[in-house]
């Protein structure tokens, strides 16, 4: 209900020159009036009432007091009137609750009052979904995508197209929806919206194609990523460094260095300067193959182009050296990284320790792990796992246990990989009791063993020919919902082969059952089968099951 403000206009409410003159005149008049009153009182009283000296003193005192109090009283009244006038002014009235006209409620206030559970923000265009401008509708589409509400985003974009907002349509809402589809792996939906985009008269831009390429790369579909880049170039849309880097990465992560190099060459031909990300992808691809020389070549080329290698760049080269088993070369690149003022991180040190582990050099691995801690880099489960693995490969169970104890002291929670490494150390040392102890400790810590952990646990028992224990592990694994793989099958067949007496029938039955379930019969498995049933019988079983020589060599 609309209310009316009652504004009282009092005298002396404003401080104009006329007001001041009126106040001064009034005070002067009062002063003259007091003087006249004093004169008449003196004439009328004579000497009858009070002696002249006393009467004059009282009158003059009263006159002074009146002259002092009246101006003060008028000034106070003037100030109070001025404040009241300001308070009642239209400019300030709306700031005072309960007085004047209240401020008009905003659209957001009405929405909040009707829907108290709404989560929209004041800047949200949600209230304009029905019939808003093309810009506000585009913002609504983007907001829906950010909120993970893909279907609402699609509905809004359909409404935009139906409402003939074609004059205001641009790539933004279409790219938002395409991105929402691609993010959920719905490439068919992404393609469909690309067609809708064109049918609405909006041409896809670089971002549109980059979204599609990125989704294809994440889905490990390098062919599809290449298809979108080719389509982009064919349509005359300029490809940028992100476009090419995405395709290079798609090929590189599959270890397809030749195709990755092909797209780097295409990138340079198109006059697009590669960034360090493209080179990192190539170096990573070389690392997967253990091709340290090629990894070094790409790093040098990146530097020649004026690019600054990052910690990930150097780490990829160290990893390439580690996979090739070249510890000295890996150490050289760790030193070069420090010389370039690039601080190695936990991944860098872990790659270096992996190189030591691959070479079975536990002492070197421990030294690099200590150097990492001295540099202030916090170790993690992976770095400890790498050191424990190095100790396991060198057969030093005591050192592996010491590293495990250090890990617990550092407050690092062990995962299944760490426990599997410790179990592997027990297997190499042939320590059955400690293997059982580690396995029980893993379960007590709430870490779910995987098939690798079970295989590591079974191996020392298999070498002793304790097939009953290995079979019990197989039963536990099955009850845990884990499927046997070739590593555990090898341990089981080895247990039957090492048993006294040898368990040939059990070995053949276990092999046939495993092969029927799709477990690979590699050369290690067939060798263990041959030891359990005899080479001749193993060859006959392989012929019966149609196992080729090629498969058996894998």
TrEMBL record:
Annotated PPR repeat ranges: 170-204, 205-239, 240-274, 275-309, 310-344, 345-379, 380-414, 415-449
Pfam families: PPR, PPR_2, PPR_3, PPR_long
Compositionally biased residues, Polar residues: 112-122
Keyword Transmembrane helix appears in the UniProt entry: yes
SUPFAM superfamilies in the record: HCP-like
Ranges that cross the membrane: 21-42
Stretches for region Disordered: 86-142
UniProt KW keywords: Membrane, Repeat, Transmembrane, Transmembrane helix
Domain PROP1-like PPR, first and last residues per copy: 349-497
Gene3D superfamilies cross-referenced by the UniProt entry: Tetratricopeptide repeat domain
Signal sequence residues: none
Descriptive protein name: PROP1-like PPR domain-containing protein
Organism: Durusdinium trenchii
């Amino acid at each position: 209900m609309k209310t009316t403000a009652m504004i009282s206009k009092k005298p002396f409410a404003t401080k104009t020159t006329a007001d001041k003159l009126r106040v001064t005149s009034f005070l002067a008049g009062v002063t003259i009036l007091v003087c006249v009153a004093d004169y008449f009182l003196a004439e009328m009283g004579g000497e009858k009432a009070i002696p002249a000296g006393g009467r004059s003193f009282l009158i003059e005192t009263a006159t002074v007091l009146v002259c002092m109090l009246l101006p003060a009283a008028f000034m106070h009244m003037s100030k109070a009137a001025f404040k009241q006038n300001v308070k009642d002014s239209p400019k300030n009235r709306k700031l005072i609750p309960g007085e004047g006209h209240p401020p008009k409620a905003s659209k957001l206030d009405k929405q909040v009052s009707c829907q108290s559970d709404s989560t929209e923000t004041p800047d949200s265009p949600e209230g304009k979904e029905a019939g808003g401008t093309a810009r506000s509708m585009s913002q609504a589409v983007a907001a829906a995508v950010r909120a993970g509400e893909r279907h609402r985003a699609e509905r809004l974009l359909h409404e935009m197209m139906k409402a003939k907002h074609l004059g205001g349509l641009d790539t933004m809402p279409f790219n938002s929806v395409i991105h929402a589809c691609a993010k959920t792996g719905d490439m068919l939906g992404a393609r469909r919206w690309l067609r809708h985009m064109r049918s609405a008269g909006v041409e896809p831009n670089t971002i549109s194609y980059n979204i599609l390429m990125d989704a294809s790369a994440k889905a490990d579909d390098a062919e599809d990523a290449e298809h979108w880049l080719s389509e982009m170039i064919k349509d005359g849309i300029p490809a940028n460094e992100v476009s090419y880097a995405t395709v290079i990465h798609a090929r590189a992560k599959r270890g397809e260095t030749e195709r990755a190099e092909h797209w780097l060459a295409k990138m340079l031909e198109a006059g697009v300067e590669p960034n360090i990300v493209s080179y990192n992808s190539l170096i990573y691809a070389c690392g997967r193959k253990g091709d340290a020389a090629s990894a070094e070549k790409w790093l040098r080329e990146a530097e020649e182009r004026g690019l600054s290698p990052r910690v990930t760049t150097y780490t990829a080269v160290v990893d390439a050296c580690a996979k090739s088993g070249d510890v000295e070369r890996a150490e050289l690149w760790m030193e070069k990284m420090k010389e370039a003022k690039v601080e190695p991180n936990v991944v860098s040190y872990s790659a270096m320790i992996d190189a030591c582990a691959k070479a079975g050099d536990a002492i070197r691995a421990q030294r690099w792990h200590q150097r990492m801690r001295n540099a202030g880099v916090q170790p993690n489960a992976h770095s400890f796992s790498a050191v424990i693995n190095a100790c396991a490969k060198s057969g030093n169970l005591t050192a592996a246990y010491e590293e495990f104890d250090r890990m617990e002291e550092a407050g690092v929670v062990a995962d299944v990989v760490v426990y599997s490494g410790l179990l592997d150390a027990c297997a190499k040392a042939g320590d059955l009791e400690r293997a059982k102890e580690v396995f029980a400790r893993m379960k007590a810590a709430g870490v779910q063993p995987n098939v690798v952990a079970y295989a590591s646990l079974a191996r020392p028992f298999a070498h002793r020919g304790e097939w009953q224990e290995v079979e019990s592990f197989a039963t536990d694994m099955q009850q845990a919902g884990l499927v046997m793989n070739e590593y555990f099958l090898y341990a089981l067949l080895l247990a039957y082969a090492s048993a006294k007496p040898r368990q040939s029938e059990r070995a053949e039955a276990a092999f046939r059952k495993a092969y029927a379930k799709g477990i690979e019969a590699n050369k290690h498995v067939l060798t263990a089968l041959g030891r359990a049933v005899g080479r001749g019988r193993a060859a006959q079983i392989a012929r019966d099951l149609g196992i080729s020589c090629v498969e058996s060599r894998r």
